[in-house]
Write a sequence for this structure.
């Protein structure tokens, strides 16, 4: 008797999953695209937090605007942040 109940419960679970599987409404972030200038400015802010006074944040943000986000700085990549570093 318990095997019939377990089988019926398993069949119900599979049926419920199959019904709900088609109703998933998901929108992955990659499908909507991204704003390169927004990422560029956010990375400038992140680098300023990481590097402090050695990093020229306003200069970095100005270059984001000037180049329309085409040159995105990466805080751990010296080549991409070298124009914004100062000697103190």
């Amino acid at each position: 008797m318990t095997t019939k109940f377990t089988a019926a419960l398993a069949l119900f679970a599979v049926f419920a999953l199959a019904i709900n599987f088609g109703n998933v409404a998901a929108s992955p972030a990659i499908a909507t695209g991204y704003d390169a200038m927004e990422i560029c400015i956010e990375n400038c802010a992140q680098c300023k937090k990481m590097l402090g006074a050695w990093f020229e944040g306003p200069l970095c943000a100005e270059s984001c605007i000037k180049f329309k986000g085409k040159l995105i700085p990466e805080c751990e990549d010296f080549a991409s942040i070298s124009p914004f570093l100062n000697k103190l």
Remarks:
- The chain is about 60% helix and 0% strand.
- The mean pLDDT is 80.
